[in-house]
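Q: Sequence in, structure out?
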Amino acid sequence: MAANDWKTALQTFAALPDPSVLPKDVYHSHSDHTITLYAQWPKSTYHMLVIPRIRPPFTAGRLLNLRTLLHGDKRQAEEVIDQLNDDADEVVEWIQEQMDKKEGYRWNVWLGFMPNPSVNHLALHVVSGDLVSEHMKNKRHYNEFNPKSGYFIRLKHVLEWFEADAPGWWEMVTRLDPVEYEKKLQEPLECFACNEDFRTMPRLKAHLKEHMERTKESELRRMESKKRIARAFEAFNKKKMEAEAREKALEDAGSSSE
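A: Exactly. Output:
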């Protein structure tokens, strides 16, 4: 699918009565409230989109992006965010299962929104925390998902916005000024894991891959250590049960001889 087509495609998908008719390389799953799609230009090893379906009382205009959603009725907006959050839990589980099968270990999964997206529909991005992808090509791409850039708005923070009741807080956080957020995309290329700066994307991407290798080695060691502890605990319990069984047998033998 061409980039220009994808810009308006999400709105079309969100209005479908039966999203399962979508191509298999686009469609992953759906519920009564959301549709989960494979990102067509994934910026991480795993990258999915969870979008709200267009159903009354919500219109395409209201669901255009996070700003248009939050600037309407607050209770309705919270309902949409809660639905995205609920259905994203299953997406995270699916990604973790894929990590187990393909890589043999798990790492972080991030959930968040683009405040100034290039597509015409609200989308919750569910991305693995590595940002290692052939489609990660420039500074803008990277800072869109860099959790430290300030551009990628984490789902957990949006959920917290609804809970805060300080005067003026809601109006401040939901302002989501496109100009201010656009500036964040011009921040230097900085590794989200260790804060090291880089002049070019190729160098940063090579560095991120090194981080992934170290993460893998560390996680595999942790998993092996956990298995050793589990085996030792199992062996201890087995010996304990065997000792208790022998003790009981001796007691039974003593009782029968009296």
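Helices lie at 3-14, 66-70, 74-102, 139-145, 155-163, 169-173, 178-184, 201-257.
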